[in-house]
Amino acid sequence: MPLFKTVRGMRDFLPDEAKAMKNLENRARRIAKLYGYDEIITPIVESYELLSAKAGDEVRSRMFFFKDLGGRDVALRYEFTASVARLVATAFRNEPKPLRLFSVGTLYRYDEPQKGRYREFWQSNYELMGSSRPEADAEIIMLTDSLLKSAGLKGHTFKIGHVGVLRSIFHQEKLQEDTQNAIMQLMDKKQCDAALETVKNAGASANAIKTIQKLMKLKSNDAFDVVDKMRSCVENYKEAADEVDNLFKILKLISESRCEIGIHVDASFARGLEYYTGMIFEVNVPELDIALGGGGRYDKLVELFGGEPTPALGVAHGLDRILLALQMQNASPKEQEASAVVVIAVQESLIAEAMKIAQKLRDAEIRVEVDVMGRKVAKALENADRKKIDYAVIVGEKELAENSAVVKDLQRREQKAIKIDEIANLIKSGNLS
Ligand code: AMP
């Protein structure tokens, strides 16, 4: 038999990596709690029709698509939003709004594997359903900032745009939806000239072309300056002007809430998925040239899946990339870990006693390993040091006769005989003396 490797684009998480991912997952879960988002768990396999409904050709071509044994067209989820929108159109149809929903788990895209880009990757995802107001948009951005700050990340900035502005101009110019999508996809790939060419070929007016050309150049870290310029650019387009005003209100709320969030506004910014209708954003750090997360408003998606018209927006954070960015900033935060303990029997006849003590400690929620290699005490202690275990409980005949065992603090190199009933409290208090 050959030695097997993981499938291209798939990774194993060895204990330290798995621990880091699970810590970040729990952090994301805590942020969800703090902002009032309820966790839901949706299937990894969804109908291809659902996932592809508003995905765009590019995304569709990278889906893990297959027929199941019953002949159904299915795919591995490439995002959470479609599943959440499905639920809001069905199970949550009559739930009072707003709904705040959180999911975390793995997603699948047939991307070209490279640093920070995998075919199986992790996201934490937050959807806020039922509000069209700018405070909902501001909340999603502030929540993202809270997660990144709480994970220990520094120097991240938000790139913010608004697809509603361009789409309103296209709409007023009576451009077909397909053409609009094609233009947005070109802009997502930063092919602005090709996008403009498509606008021209679709028969847009000279005024529209001039307006779009000007908009495409507007970007700056001075958020309100860009918004002012966008406003004067779209003077002749009433709906587009309303969309610029919406962007202004979102930015104002964020700035007035004093969150100290780094923001760059880019009027030419577009994102790959077709379903966005309003504010869109991405979050980046200087250390990586790929985004750590992104999201935006998609007011038509729930309706598309047969639900009530439901204004909504959401964000997905790439957990693998956040971990990578933390690593590059040397900031991998060490979670406050509970003490780890090894219980060692001095002789074979005491193993059952050692296991009994281990059980007692686990009942007190202490992490315990029992030596299962029949090692001598010195060897078992050496191994415990290697594994950075905090305490050893050494079970010997003499102490056992007095209902005690020797507890050794492996960092301070102190040890003491302690009554078995008191070991758990003592380890939890972290103080042997
Ligand atoms: P999206 O759903 O495309 O908005 O992606 C949201 C976030 O998921 C991105 O900003 C990335 O951080 C992460 N992400 C997307 N694709 C991948 C991938 N192939 N590998 C790792 N992370 C990814």
CATH topology of the largest domain: BirA Bifunctional Protein, domain 2
Distance between the termini: 56 Å
User: Which of globular, elongated, flat, extended, rod-shaped describes the shape?
Assistant: elongated
CATH architectural name of the largest domain: 2-Layer Sandwich
CATH class of the largest domain: Alpha Beta
In short:
This protein is of the alpha+beta class and 433 residues long. Helix 1 runs antiparallel to helix 5, helix 5 packs across helix 11 (238-256) and helix 7 (177-188) runs antiparallel to helix 8.
What does this structure look like?
By secondary structure, the chain is of the alpha+beta class. It has two domains: 15-328, Bira Bifunctional Protein, Domain 2 (BirA Bifunctional Protein, domain 2); 340-429, Anticodon-binding domain (Rossmann fold, 3-Layer(aba) Sandwich). Helix content is 41%, strand content 21%. It contains 17 helices and 17 strands. It has helices spanning 15-34, 48-52, 57-60, 81-89, 134-150, 163-172, 177-188, 192-201, 206-215, 223-233, 238-256, 301-304, 319-328, 351-363, 377-386, 397-400, 420-429, and strands at residues 38-39, 45-47, 65-67, 73-76, 99-108, 120-129, 157-162, 219-220, 262-266, 279-284, 293-297, 312-318, 340-345, 367-370, 391-395, 404-409, 414-419. Strands 1-5-6-12-11-10-7-9-8 form a nine-stranded mixed sheet, sandwiched between helices. Strand 16 (404-409) and strand 17 (414-419) form a beta hairpin. Helix 5 (134-150) crosses helix 11 and helix 6 runs antiparallel to helix 11. The relative contact order is 0.11. It binds adenosine monophosphate. Residues 79, 109, 111, 116-118, 121, 123, 291-294, 316, 318, 320-321 line the site of adenosine monophosphate.
